[in-house]
Specification:
The chain is mainly alpha-helical. It is about 80% helix and about 0% strand.
Length: about 400
Amino acid sequence: MGAVALGIFCLITSELLPVGLLTSVGAELGVSDGTAGLMVTVPGIVAAFCAPLVTVGSGRLDRRFVLVGLIALMAVANLVVALAPGFGVVLAARLLVGVGVGGFWAIAGGLAVRLVPERHVGRATALVFGGVPTASVLGVPAGTLLGELGGWRTAFAAVGGLGLLTLAALLLLLPPLPPTGRITFAQLPALLRRNRGVRAGVAVTFLMVTGQFAAYTFVRPILQDVSGVGAGFVSTLLLGYGAAGVAGNFLAGGRDAHRTLLAVGASLAVILALIATLSGAVAGTVLLLAWGLAFGGVGVSLQSWMIKAAPDEAEVSSSLMVAMFNLAIAAGAFSGGLVVDGISVPAAPLTGAALMGLAAVTVWVTSASRRARANVAAAPEPVLPAAAREGSAAEHR
C-alpha cells in the first residue's frame, strides 16, 4: 500500500504543482493567471474521461503493470514541461499528466479491498489517500519553493524524476494484481442507474471538489491580494495547509463518510466565505490552516462512501468517483479563472463557498433519505386482528 500511496502522491503533486507556480509560468510564457490556470483545467478534464476508459481498456492486464505504465507516462510528461518552449507544449504535456492521474487513481482507489483484510480496509484507504494531502504538505510547497529558487522548469523536472523512482518502487513492492473480472462500459451507467448511494456520491464529489478548486487554484493571489501575505511566505503557508490536510485525512479515515462530509461541507462554506472577506495575514493564516484540515478528509471520505455504496463493484464505483473528481478539478479551475479575470480575486473563494454549501445540503438530504429507508425496512409488518385476517382471506377467495 505504501508504493501505491507514493504513486498517488506523485500524481497529485504533478497535477497540482502549477497552483504554486502560476505567476512564474505565466510571466515567462506571456499568459495571464487565468490562462495559466488551464494547466490545472486540462489534466482535470482528461483525467475525468480516462478514469473509466483506462479501467475498462485495461481489460485482463495485471493491474501492477498498468499502474507502472501510467506513472511512466506522468514522469515523461513532466520532463517535457520542463523543456517546453511555449505554453502550447506545456498544455499538451499536461494532457498526458491527466491520462496518468485518471487511470492510476481509478485503479488504485479500490485496491485496499484486495491488499488487506476487510477489518483494515478503512485504514488502508486512508493510507492510499494520504498521498493526496501529503502532496499538498510536501509536493506542492516543495515544488513552489524549488521553483522560487531554481525556476519553475526545475520544479517540473524534479517531479518527473520522482515519478521514475515511484515506478521502481511499484515494480519492486507491489504484488501481481490480476483483474478480478471483466469490466465493460455498460456497467458504468448501469451502476449509476440502480444505485442511489453511488449517484449521490458522484453529485457530492462534483459540488465539493469544484468548490475547492475554484478557490484553491488561485490560493496564491488570494493570500497576497486579500490577506496581504508577502510573496516569500506563501510556500511556507502552503506547507502548513498541507500538514493540516494530512491530519484531516487520517482523522476522517474509518469514520462515517456521510457525517464527515456534512461537517466538512458546512465548515468549508464558512471558511471560504471568510477568507474572501477578511483581510490581514493572521486571519488568512488561521483560515488557510482550517481550510486544509477540513478538506483533508474529503478524498478518503468520498472513497469510503463509494466502496460502501457498491462493495462488490469497487473498481467501477471508484472509476466513477475519480472521473467526477477530476472533472470537478477542471470545472473548479476553469470557473475560478473566469471569476478572477472577470470579477475579482475574492470572487473565487466566494464561488467555492456557495458550492460547498450546496454539497452540505446534498449530503444532509441523502443521509435523511437513507435513514428513512432504513427505518421502513426495519419496521415490523403490522399484525391484523383475527377478524380482519379472516375478512382479508375471504376477499382473496
